[in-house]
Structures are given as structure tokens and as C-alpha cells.
Design goal:
- The chain is of the alpha+beta class and about 300 residues long.
- It folds into three domains: about 80 residues, DnaJ domain (Helix Hairpins), CATH 1.10.287; about 80 residues, Sandwich (HSP40/DNAj peptide-binding domain), CATH 2.60.260; about 90 residues, Sandwich (HSP40/DNAj peptide-binding domain), CATH 2.60.260.
- Helices cover about 25% and strands about 25% of the residues.
- The chain has eight helices and eleven strands.
- Strands 6-7-11-10 form a four-stranded mixed sheet. A three-stranded mixed sheet has the order 1-5-4.
Length: about 300
């Protein structure tokens, strides 16, 4: 997938005001409108202009796009990470007009639904719900915690430029939360109109990379190094878990890549996850003549053909 430079498409600078972006869009839309344009590939250019304007006219999408777009050039091979927009607060309501490119759909295709409704007299209106992705530590997901979360809120300044302000909230992280689950903060969305109630803020959970653990739903994965004699003879070893160290019996004759399971040692929940251990046999180096002689003796006494199945 190729990166799209929406500023170049609209022939504006990255410092352009929203009014400048609107004027350029109107000029290019008239120039390439398929019903009147005599330009070559007018329909394709018109769709590109529409897509670029869909992003840059919206302070929220524009701020998120600016966050990483300055490091890329049009046409470069591009694949964003799932958390590319973590920490940005969105009010939702992305337009669904037109069929936009894969690039647009990858970045902005996820609908962040909003909520708004008129009340009775006085035209009360419920505030829109806001949404944001946040990264938390795996230990906090296991134990539960209260953490300060900082969010960037895009908005327009007095000159019509997109800026961001930060706000910090103390968030209660429930024990057992998993990737993709949402934490609801009541009343922390947009304020209502005419005395209507404020919307809510929904935080979608992502995990920070962990030094040794990897989460998959509620299961926790760990690559466990073992010695050749622990794998061959069977031994009891100490294993780290999110809940502390536990003893684990390695079955005799275990092979590298074998998987063992610690029941209920994953993330808590109505059905707690497990901890899954993948064995990795660590072979000592033959750094001395004695060590080399030992390996040569093993070669003679344990003749095996590990690559037979490869033909």
C-alpha cells in the first residue's frame, strides 16, 4: 500500500489554514469534476481530491494524519501499526461518502460512532461520545490499577490552524481487561447543548510491549529457555508469571518448541486465561577442549538423524 500525501493532492502546505484548504478544494473540485472537466483522468483526480479533503477538512483526522505523515513521502510503501492513533481523542462520525482508497480505509475506516439526540423543550441535546486508544502495561491489566492517561484533543486555533491540547484523566483499569476492550468514562465526552448531558469517553485498550510476555486474548505466552539436560532428563524449574514465580516440571524428553500450559495463570476473568510456555533449548558453546571433547563423545554415543524428515 502506498502512502498518500493529502497536502500535495490539494496543492497546499502543511501549515495551511482550514480556509485555505477549503478554497483549494473548491478550485480543484471544479477543475476535475467529471461532468464538466476536459482534463485527462479527471474522474481519478476528482476522487483523490475528495479523499484528501475528507481528511484535511476535519481537525481530528488532520491532526492524527499529521502525527506520522511528515515522515513519509507520496508513493512510499506504507503499513501503519494498529496503534498509530493511540492517545488521540476523536468525537466520531467519520463520513462514509464515496469509495475511498485502501490507504484511507486503513487509517480511518473504523467507525467511531457518536451519540446525539434532541430532548424536549429548550432543544436539549446529548453531547457526542468521544473515543481514544490508550496503551497500558500488562501488569496493570492483570492486577487492575488507577493510572493517569494523557490524551491529545485536536482543535482549531484562532488563526484556523489545527492544534492539539492535552488533558489528563485518572482512569481505573479493571483487572482482566484485554486488548480491544473499552473502558467507559461517563460524562467525559463532549458537553451537551441546552443543558443536555455530556457524552461519554470510551478508551480502547492496547498493551505496551512487554519484556518477556505476550498476550493473546486472556492467555499469556512466554518463551522458556531450558538446558539440554533439563529437556532430556526432566527437571523442575522456576517460571515467572504475572502473579509471581511458580515451579514447573519439564517432562523428560522434551523438545525445543514443545508447549506447556500453566492453567489459570493468564489474565483473570470469568474464564481465566492460561500461561503457555514454548520451550527453547539453549545449547552451551564448546569454548574449551574439554567441552569440545564432551560434545564429540555425545556425537558418538547418541547417533541421531534429525533431518531425515527433510528428505
Amino acid at each position: 500500500m502506498e502512502f498518500k500525501d493529502y497536502y500535495a493532492t490539494l496543492s497546499v502546505s502543511r501549515q495551511a489554514t482550514q480556509d485555505e484548504i477549503k478554497r483549494s478544494y473548491r478550485r480543484l473540485a471544479r477543475k476535475y469534476h467529471p461532468d464538466v472537466s476536459k482534463e485527462a483522468d479527471a474522474e481519478r483526480h476528482f476522487k483523490e481530491v475528495q479523499e484528501a479533503y475528507e481528511v484535511l477538512k476535519d481537525p481530528e483526522k488532520r491532526a492524527a494524519y499529521d502525527r506520522f505523515g511528515s515522515n513519509w513521502k507520496a508513493g512510499q510503501e506504507f503499513r501503519p501499526t494498529p496503534d498509530w492513533d493511540a492517545g488521540f481523542e476523536f468525537s466520531g462520525g467519520f463520513s462514509e461518502q464515496g469509495a475511498f482508497s485502501d490507504f484511507f480505509e486503513t487509517l480511518f475506516g473504523r467507525t467511531r460512532g457518536g451519540r446525539a439526540g434532541a430532548g424536549g423543550r429548550g432543544f436539549q441535546m446529548h453531547g457526542r461520545d468521544h473515543h481514544a486508544k490508550v496503551r497500558i502495561d500488562l501488569e496493570d491489566a492483570y492486577q487492575g490499577a488507577v493510572r493517569a492517561v494523557s490524551l491529545s484533543v485536536p482543535e482549531l486555533d484562532a488563526q484556523g490552524h489545527v492544534a492539539t491540547r492535552s488533558r489528563t484523566l485518572n482512569v481505573k483499569i479493571p483487572a482482566g481487561v484485554t486488548v480491544g476492550q473499552r473502558i467507559r468514562l461517563a460524562g467525559q465526552g463532549a458537553p451537551g447543548a441546552g443543558g443536555g448531558a455530556s457524552g461519554d469517553l470510551y478508551l480502547e485498550v492496547l498493551f505496551n510491549p512487554h519484556r518477556i510476555f505476550r498476550a493473546e486474548n486472556r492467555d499469556i505466552h512466554l518463551e522458556l529457555p531450558v538446558t539440554p539436560w533439563e529437556a532430556a532428563l526432566g527437571r523442575t524449574v522456576t517460571v515467572p508469571t504475572l502473579g509471581g514465580q511458580v515451579d514447573l516440571r519439564i517432562p523428560a524428553g522434551s523438545q525445543s518448541g514443545s508447549k506447556l500450559r500453566l492453567k489459570g495463570r493468564g489474565l483473570p476473568g470469568a474464564s481465566p486465561g492460561d500461561q503457555i510456555l514454548t520451550l527453547r533449548i539453549v545449547v552451551p558453546e564448546a569454548r574449551t577442549p574439554q567441552a569440545r571433547a564432551f560434545y564429540e563423545r555425545m556425537e558418538r554415543e547418541f547417533p541421531i538423524s534429525p533431518r531425515t524428515e527433510l528428505g
